[in-house]
Amino acid sequence: MAARTETAFDHGAAIMACAGQDADALRELYDREAPSMIGVALRIVRRKDLAEEIVHDAFVQIWRKASQFDATLGSGRSWMYAIVRNRALSVIRDRSREDLVDDADLDGLVEQTDHDDLVSRLPDRDALRVCLERLEAPRRASVVLAYAGGLSHGEIAGKLGVPLGTVKAWIRRSLISLRQCMA
Q1: Rounded CA gap, 115 and 142, in Å?
Q2: Which residues are in the RNA polymerase sigma factor 70 region 4 type domain (predicted)?
């Protein structure tokens, strides 16, 4: 069997074919991009079932709105990924963030990204490490869980067992302190 030469795939042309109701073009787009799109959605919503649902909804939207794609504004692939990203963000806005994450998954994530361990991995003389170590332990934990662990304020409040407002205040004040310390 001869080796197949891969030519550059024109996402924009496939999207325009979808506008003409070409189901094969949509299938080709799906086969090429769905796995990566699920990864993008998964990073945002942190639940595989929701990520898969978001990608499905995105492809329905791609099919329905293909005629609105304008290649002069950007690539077809970027347009598709913007739909997935916006759909995932809409899901988060429409639901409580805490409902999107299974507690078991959250515990595993936080255990993997132990905040003290992350800080200790920074070089001893690193300004960020020095400044983080100056923060009180719960404030340091909230900042590291938010920025290194990717947790929302609600998730951090649940993990640390403190009110949501407290977490928001800790993070805001800690960022001000870090900014001053790093200056």
Answers
A1: 9
A2: 126-175
Which residues contact residue 25 at a Cβ distance below 8 angstroms, ignoring those fewer than 6 apart?
14, 15, 17, 18
Domain(s) of CATH 1.10.10.10: residues in the chain: 102-182
Tens place of pLDDT per residue across the chain (183 aa): 444 445 688 999 999 999 999 999 999 999 999 999 998 888 888 888 889 999 999 999 999 999 999 988 888 998 999 899 888 888 887 764 444 444 444 444 344 445 566 666 667 667 778 888 888 888 888 888 887 777 788 888 888 888 888 888 998 998 899 889 887
User: What is the CA 183 to chain-centroid distance, rounded?
Assistant: 29
Burial of 73 (0-12, 13-18, 19+ CB in 10 A): exposed
The size of the chain, in residues, is 183
Give the amino acid at 50. Answer: L
Fold category of 11-95 in CATH: Rna Polymerase Sigma Factor; Chain: A (1.10.1740)
CB atoms within 10 A of CB 127: 13
